[in-house]
Design brief:
This protein has 826 residues and is of the alpha+beta class. The strands form six sheets. The chain has a seven-stranded mixed beta sheet with strand order 16-2-1-17-18-20-19, sandwiched between helices. Strands 3, 4, 11, 12 and 15 form a five-stranded antiparallel beta sheet that branches. Strands 5-6-7 form a three-stranded antiparallel beta sheet, with helices on one face.
Length: 826
């Protein structure tokens, strides 16, 4: 019997739900644990697993109704998730004529009823106290009028609530979601919904774990086991465990393993575990704050505390007798209207910053690049804009000097120097009513501030060697690669700690030392390790300063998938760590946390058997996980090795599956053959894939073919709609979910029979996607339609083990050329 997902899938609603989850940004359940790339929406994982477990009944309409109830995506579920009511103004605009008329008549009736009450009360006052009988009758009349008024008020309240409900139900599905909690915020379907679900599925469940257990027993003879061989940020094992599956995850990268372990054992570890992690992190932060205050490196003589540190790179080009500070804009804050101007001082080759408040017109000018000293890769003399120098030429034909491990700041003869040019200070004053008030101001560094920077470097040098040996500071070299070549080439940085200022290394190092001492349990140790990863991402030389009206704050390193050395960057003082350091801010309890297993393993070597394999494989170097992950691993490696002695604290880049030709294809064939071997004959796989390169799709098709798998369904979910930055333009907005089963028999096929089948399936797939595209913001772009066409073709082609007498597995093995040739011909 086919699974529900092999016959239909509510892709329009899932696309909307996935987009809502994506828009939550840091409000997503797993993102707080740490940065990882390409986490799939939890709702997509939940729907995929339930769709593979739920059988198709032969009644597609009823199947869809029940499936939506399971996901609380039906009318009843949406009403239970609805948590944002309409304002009176919104409701008046959304109500229909009949509803407005009833509303107005009730309001008029209330006005009349209140007038009756007032009149009867006035009449009561005119009756002499001696007229007992008349007064009692008048009192009764007042009470009757008040009761009638109260009843009308109640009727109005009921009517308004009915109008609220009706207006909500009339909204398009995506607009409903703007007023709803996500499905994961509910325990599951209502008791009434469970009655319908159980009647349809012949089950007796009262929760999703109950249902998963019963469906698993029916299909596999045990609780279904779900595995992910590329677990990454942990979405798949986490959601599998949360709905009651036995979850398994593995990944070569120890950072991915740490994130997945934390999702199961910290977020899924229950209230006691979460409270311990939160307590240890809070105590560590408080102790660091006391230490920094004792050192006196974040306070000035006026009792102010640093609220942000702004740095810039400066260069002294040939023919220029002063260092030029570099920035594409010297706007510091659009809301505060603060900019930095530079002044020359006689006898000095360093310019002096002047932090000033300017007019709205000047803010606009600075926002547009007024006085910029870097434009299109060229340095511009701030006092003679006709003089410019290429940054590339400043590096010289031999490139920059490569920093040694002990280099914490540029040497005096290095091309690129750096300086602190602005500090934002904050001071808390007490108002006359006793409440606190914070005032902030921007200021150029004064002599005391420069002394504090010197003090920071001295304190760091005293501890640097010891902290590196104990793993409180990074000591690893940066391994050259696609992303990691950039800091080496552009700044000469050779070690991961070079990506952090002395102030950041000192304060992060003391945080690592203190948290390492306070964390006694494995859960607390993991929590603090992930916290250090978050700190690295939010406080480094690669953190730009956001000048926009809504922010005026430092951003994180990974605004995109790159390690971009910046000419201006920001640093965070300890009080600003409160938003970065804690990894748990709300409790998320799994139903079956003990069922999750996480290994650090090559997917080719896995020996774990799973009933369902749900994987999101690497996409032809779309993300260089082994390189970017090292940014975090540098802060975690030695402590991670102590917490997980069975793991290797190394990204094992040499084993990473990369999209660079034959190696990628052969590795993927081996992986999916292995997964197929380690699943029952009635098991399922899903490959979630997001890529538009035809060559990569050629590889994927041949990989799945050669692995002995056949596609039984292909659904495109719009998981990336509305994304910004690198995901704009021609980048794919959707994820194709390929449902796969073992190809038990090597059925032969013939091209003249297959071509029409492929054409029909492609047309059906495109038609289903076009049905979703409406309005001014379509779900899919041209790249998505191309991707879906590949997926539809795969669904037909992978049914066959031979085509025109040619064995697919033998064709795929010799070379990539053969793979691409077969694909283009077939």
């Amino acid at each position: 019997m086919p699974a529900y997902i092999e016959t239909q899938f509510p892709i329009a609603r899932l696309s909307a739900e996935s987009f809502k989850e994506r828009k939550a940004n840091n409000g997503q359940t797993l993102t707080r644990l740490g940065k990882w790339w390409g986490r799939k929406p939890l709702i997509l994982v939940r729907a995929s697993l339930l769709g593979m477990l739920m059988p198709e009944s032969g009644n597609p309409i009823r199947d869809r109704e029940i499936f939506l109830k399971l996901l609380t995506m039906d009318e009843d579920g949406l009403l239970r998730r609805w948590n944002k009511r309409f304002t009176g103004k919104e409701l008046a605009a959304l109500a229909n004529e009949q509803e407005r008329n009833r509303w107005q008549s009730l309001e008029a009736a209330i006005t009349d009823a209140k007038a009756v009450v007032a009149a009867r009360k006035a009449a009561l006052k005119l009756i002499p106290r001696s007229a007992t009988v008349s007064r009692e009758e008048a009192k009764a009349a007042v009470e009757s009028a008040e009761a009638a008024c109260s009843e009308t008020v109640a009727q109005l309240g009921e009517h308004i609530e009915a109008v609220q409900r009706a207006a909500f139900l009339r909204l398009p599905y995506p607009e409903k979601l703007e007023r709803c909690l996500r499905p994961e915020h509910l325990d599951g379907p209502s008791s009434e919904a469970w009655e319908e679900i159980n009647a349809h599925l012949s089950t007796s469940a009262a929760s999703l774990p109950d249902l998963v257990e019963q469906l698993g027993q029916r299909t596999f003879g045990h609780t279904p086991r779900v595995g992910d061989a590329f677990c990454g940020g942990g979405s798949i094992p986490f959601e599998a465990a949360r709905i009651g599956c036995a979850a398994f995850g593995s990944d070569l990268n120890p950072v991915a393993g740490l994130l997945t372990w934390a999702s199961l054992n910290l977020l899924g570890g229950g209230a006691a575990v979460q409270e311990e992690v939160m307590r240890v992190q809070a105590e560590a932060l408080q102790e660091v704050d006391r230490q920094v205050a004792d050192w006196g490196i974040e306070h000035n003589a006026d009792g102010e505390r640093a609220d942000a540190f702004l740095y810039c790179v400066e260069v002294k080009p040939e023919g220029c007798d002063y260092y030029i500070p570099l920035a594409p804009s010297w706007l510091i804050g659009e809301r505060s209207k603060v900019v930095c101007k530079w002044k020359r001082q006689d006898g000095s080759d360093r310019l002096d910053p002047e932090i000033v408040t300017v007019s709205d017109d000047e803010v606009t000018a600075y926002k547009g690049g007024k006085n910029a000293t870097v434009v299109n890769g060229r340095v511009i003399d701030p006092f003679d804009p006709s003089r410019t120098w290429s940054i590339e030429s400043l590096r010289g034909p031999e490139g920059l000097r490569l920093w040694a491990n002990d280099d914490l700041v540029p040497r005096p003869d290095d091309v690129f120097q750096e300086r602190l040019y602005c500090i934002r200070w904050v001071k808390t004053n007490i108002r006359t009513d006793g409440t606190p008030e914070e005032t902030r101001r921007y200021s150029a560094p004064e002599f005391g501030d420069i002394d504090r920077e010197t003090r920071v470097l001295e304190l760091l040098r005293e501890r640097f060697r010891e902290w590196q040996e104990k793993g409180f500071l990074p000591s690893r070299n940066i391994t050259p690669g696609y992303n990691t070549d950039q800091p080496i080439r552009e700044r000469g940085w050779t070690h991961w700690h070079h990506l952090f200022t002395p102030r950041q290394l000192l304060t992060h190092g003391v945080l690592a030392e203190i948290s390492g001492r306070l964390a006694e349990s494995k859960a607390a140790k993991v929590g603090c390790l992930l916290g250090m990863g978050r700190m690295a991402n939010w406080d480094s030389r690669l953190c730009l300063w956001d000048t926009s009206v809504a922010n005026e704050k430092g951003k994180d390193v990974f605004l995109n998938q790159a390690l971009n050395p910046l000419v201006t960057f920001s640093g965070r003082p300890v009080p600003k760590w409160e938003t970065a350091w804690p990894i748990i801010t709300a409790q998320t309890v799994l139903h079956s946390p003990a069922s999750g297993v996480v290994l650090q393993s090559d997917a080719r070597d896995l020996r774990e058997t799973c009933d369902i394999w749900l994987t999101d494989p690497p996409y032809a170097d779309a993300v260089n996980y082994h390189e970017l992950g090292d940014f975090f691993l540098a802060w975690q490696d030695k402590q991670l090795a102590a917490a997980f002695p069975e793991w290797t604290a190394d990204s094992r880049a040499q084993l990473a599956v990369r999209g660079d030709g034959d190696d990628f294809r052969h590795a993927m064939v081996d992986i999916y053959k292995n997964l197929a071997r380690h699943m029952p004959d009635n098991g399922l796989q899903m490959v979630q894939f997001t890529h538009q390169d035809p060559a990569v799709w050629a590889d994927l098709g041949m990989i799945l073919w050669a692995a002995g798998l056949k596609a039984t369904a292909a659904w495109t979910i719009s998981t990336e709609t509305g994304a910004g930055g690198i995901k704009k333009g021609s980048y794919v907005q959707g994820t194709v979910c390929l449902v796969l089963r073992k190809r038990v028999a090597a059925e032969p096929g013939f091209l003249d029979e297959i071509f029409p089948l492929v054409e029909d399936e492609v047309k059906r797939q495109i038609d289903s996607m076009q049905a979703l595209d409406h309005g001014s913001e379509p779900n899919f772009n041209d790249a998505d339609y191309q991707l879906a066409a590949y997926a539809a073709a795969l669904k037909v082609l992978t049914q066959y083990g031979q085509i025109d007498g040619r064995d697919v597995e033998h064709e795929v093995e010799p070379s990539r050329y053969a793979a691409e040739g077969c694909w283009s011909e077939w």
